[in-house]
Write a structure and sequence with these properties.
The complex is a heterodimer of chains A (319) and B (200). Chain A is α+β, with helices and mostly antiparallel strands and 319 residues long. Chain A has a domain of 209 residues: Oxidoreductase, molybdopterin-binding domain (Sulfite Oxidase, Chain A, domain 2, Alpha-Beta Complex). Chain A is 18% helix and 21% strand.
């Protein structure tokens, strides 16, 4: 098995950390192990119950961008995760003692397979893949993040939604004891998000369980979070405990909080401004004090993969 | 040294240096000496300078009520300096936005000032503050006479505009904006109360 990275980026550009080299060695070792295991049954996704533990058997993806990812520090100290506080540094500060395991995910609604699953069993039928994606926040900043995750399309298929299932609704853990930010009603807890079935089964959509080849940090949504890179960051619901197949468009947290500012679709769109600020340009985190903002791309640059999902839909109305 | 001399040669320089601490910390953090800026350093600098702008507006507005309540008339001797520091921090906040955030891109700047009401409001507050700073010298005060007082009443409007500007750009968690609004309400309310009592 030959694993090829685009040759135009240097490993040092990607992380700037010496662990990159370890990671490469690890993946190489993993690919050899993977090759020898081909005869037997597939291993499936395994995520150790240990902060920052390395993930094994991580595949590569053509959907990854060749842009240089942000540093681990940038990605893990500058977060919006109101469950741990509304300041950007709060999730890092106040999630360190959070124990994301044991963790149960409930799947219900219009599907043939439903029930409550241990996180370990939930991810096991699927394969881990690294997806280096751009992430555009609705606040007009962006990052490039090397997620590790499982394909949401595979997950949806696995649970066999019925013809009545037109949307997938997600919910975050509601536990004000463990998530101090929930003690204040900044949002109507639990955090809720949703996708159409077509969006959820788009190859770009993943449920992330890792970052930089390691277990997903708490502040980034451990143990499992949604990543839909053509949408604004707030669609990427973190700490998921429930996945429901529903017939009608589900309520989503930011839309409930400010319906004229945040829509259900929330596709990245430089043409449609937020009522209080422009979405035409974005600040790339890590570009330094004197770098100018860069133009925001339609669907965050993923139009080729997702534009067809919205043909015939007026994106000014359905923002 | 008499009291006036003490204020002029000891306390004023001390307060002056204390008022510089927030900006020195921003610079120190930018160079990684006193700490570090966030992953979004421009936003960090802009927010911190803006916060101190509002705080100095509040501190300046607190001088008169505090003097009335405590009878410490010497407080008035610091009011101009505190007001000028409010202008200083608001100006730096504006310049950070102009140079670092917008990168002097004229089209984006004009669009923001005209189309984003919270920026229009902040800009109006800055213009008013500039007028007050420009007329803060003894000479200007003498020359303008009664009009000087009328002009400088606009500091109340500046306080309202500043809090409004802050509140309007918050995404969801308005608690800090509400705290500033409450402080402003107390400071302006005290003046109203005082005015009403004297008229009776």
């Amino acid at each position: 098995m030959l694993i090829k990275k685009p040759s135009d980026i240097l490993p040092s550009e990607i992380t700037g950390k010496d662990n990159y080299l370890n990671r490469r060695a690890f993946i190489r070792a993993g690919s050899i192990a993977g090759a020898s295991a081909l005869a037997g049954p597939a291993l499936g996704a395994i995520v150790p119950d240990e902060a920052r533990a390395r993930l094994s058997d991580v595949g590569m993806s053509d959907l990854s961008t060749s842009e240089a990812p942000n540093s681990y520090d940038d990605i893990t100290t500058y977060n919006n995760y109101y469950e741990f506080g509304t300041d950007k540094a709060d999730p890092y500060r106040y999630s360190q003692d959070f124990k994301p395991r044991p963790w149960t995910i409930t799947v219900d609604g219009h599907a043939d397979k439903t029930g409550s699953f241990h996180f370990e069993d939930f991810i096991k039928p699927f394969d881990l893949e690294e997806r280096i994606y751009r992430m555009r926040c609705v606040e007009a900043w962006s990052m490039v993040i090397p997620w590790v995750g499982i394909s949401l399309a595979e997950v949806v298929k696995y649970f066999q939604p019925t013809s009545k299932a037109r949307y997938v609704a997600f919910e975050t853990l509601h536990d004000p004891v463990r998530m101090a930010g929930q003690r204040r009603r900044v949002l109507d807890w639990p955090y809720r998000e949703g996708l159409t079935i077509a969006e959820a089964t788009n190859p770009l959509a993943i449920l992330a369980v890792g970052l930089y080849g390691e277990v997903l940090p708490n502040q980034n949504g451990a143990p499992i979070r949604l990543v839909v890179p053509w949408k604004y960051g707030f669609k990427g619901i973190k700490g998921i405990v429930r996945m429901r197949f529903v017939e009608n468009m589900p309520k989503t947290s930011w839309n409930m909080a400010a319906p004229h500012e945040y829509g259900f679709y929330a596709n990245v769109n430089p043409e449609v401004d937020h009522p209080r600020w422009s979405q035409a340009r974005e600040r790339r985190i890590g570009s330094g004090l004197f770098a100018s903002k860069q133009p925001t791309l339609m669907f965050n640059g993923y139009g080729e993969q997702v534009a067809h999902l919205y043909s015939g839909l007026d994106l000014r109305i359905n923002f | 040294m008499n009291t006036l001399q003490q204020i002029r040669f000891i306390w004023k320089p001390v307060v002056f240096l204390a008022c510089l601490v927030p900006v020195l910390l921003v610079v120190g953090d930018a160079f990684g000496v006193t700490g570090s800026l966030s992953a979004n350093p421009i936003e960090d600098i802009q927010d911190r300078l803006g916060n101190w702008g509002i705080r100095f507006i509040m501190i300046t507005l607190a001088v008169t009520p505090l003097r009335r309540v405590t009878g410490w008339n010497w407080l008035i001797r610091f009011r101009r300096m505190l007001g000028l520091f409010a202008f200083f921090y608001v100006l730096l906040h504006f310049l950070t936005w102009l140079f670092l955030d917008q990168g002097l891109l004229l089209s984006a700047i004009l669009e923001d000032v005209v189309e984003r009401p919270f920026i229009t409001i902040g800009f109006a507050a800055l213009l008013l503050l500039t007028a007050l700073a420009a007329t803060s010298t003894n000479g200007m005060r003498r020359r303008l006479g009664r009009r000087w007082i009328k002009l400088h009443y606009s500091v109340y409007a500046i306080g309202v505009l500043a809090v409004w500007h802050y509140w309007w750009q918050v995404k969801q968690d308005t608690i800090e904006a509400k705290i500033y609004a409450a402080i402003l309400a107390i400071l302006l309310g005290h003046r109203l109360w005082h005015y009403w009592r004297r008229r009776r």
